[in-house]
Amino acid sequence: MYHVVVATRNPAKILAVTEACKAVFHDKLIDVEGIDVASGVSAQPLTDRETWQGADNRLSAAKQAHPNAMLWVSIEAGIEKNQAFAWIIAESPTQRSESRSASFMLPDSLVTALQEGAELGPLMSTLTGIDNIKHKGGAIGAITSGLLTRSSVYQQAIILALSPLVHPFYAEAAQQASGVIQERPILIR
After folding, report:
1. How many angstroms separate the CA atoms of 139 and 154, rounded?
2. What element of type H or E holds 22?
3. Are 57 and 39 contacting, i.e. CB atoms less than 8 angstroms apart?
4. Burial class (CB in 10 A: 0-12, 13-18, 19+), 108
5. How far is the C-alpha of 21 from the C-alpha of 155, rounded, in Å?
6. Which tens digit of pLDDT belongs to each residue from 7-46?
7. Residue 97 · residue 28 · CB < 8 Å
8. What phi, psi does 67 have (nearest 5°)?
9. Beta carbons of 46 and 117 less than 8 angstroms apart
10. Sign of the CA dihedral with 146 first, then 148, 149, and 152 last
11. pLDDT at 127
């Protein structure tokens, strides 16, 4: 059983990690556990850098809380100008990888409210009438009329973050660059 720690208890994010792990690791038995950790940044990050920092902080906290896991994954959603997106960081005991999700435009009225200190999730819950939307389809689910969800968009970015941890190309490239023979990055395959 491979223990995967997700640096959140948000069900939409945990679902995305679970589905991405199933896709990348195929038939391996995987135990995905979400934990509460602080991002150390604003409740609604408003820059790419702050969003990345939140993901990095969450990953560090998850590793501290569960140092014997096989894999740690953090997801931090944020805004840059009028674009919403998320940073994903995945780390095994021997390698780290990062990815950024697809982004989508927010209406100017929402951007103004965000700049005034509001958080996207509660704003979208008010606009749509969907209680706690950020734990469900998210703003992207509302904006795309359900064609995409928070989980589905994050799943793609998580797969992109996990792939370097398992694909031999990355280990071979690192060996060639350093001249040092290394073990395969992660043994979940």
Report:
1. 13
2. helix 11-25
3. yes
4. exposed
5. 9
6. 999 999 999 999 999 999 886 788 999 999 999 999 999 9
7. no
8. -65, -15
9. no
10. positive
11. 86
∠ CA 70-73-76 to the nearest 5 degrees?
170
Tokens for 130, please give them.
């969907």
The answer to whether the beta carbons of residues 105 and 172 sit under 8 Å apart is no
Say what the pTM is: 0.86
| Residue corresponding to tokens 């927010």 | 106
Beta bridge partners of 79: 84
Helix-helix angle 11-25:150-166, to 10 degrees: 40
**Tokens representing residue 6 in the block:** 């997700």
Q: How far apart are CA 129 and CA 157, in angstroms?
A: 28
What tokens appear for 78 in the block?
């944020």
pLDDT confidence bin for 188, thresholds 50/70/90 = very low
| Type of residue numbered 121 | G
The residue ranking higher by pLDDT, 168 or 71, is: 71
Are the CB atoms for 138 and 79 separated by under 8 Å?
A: no
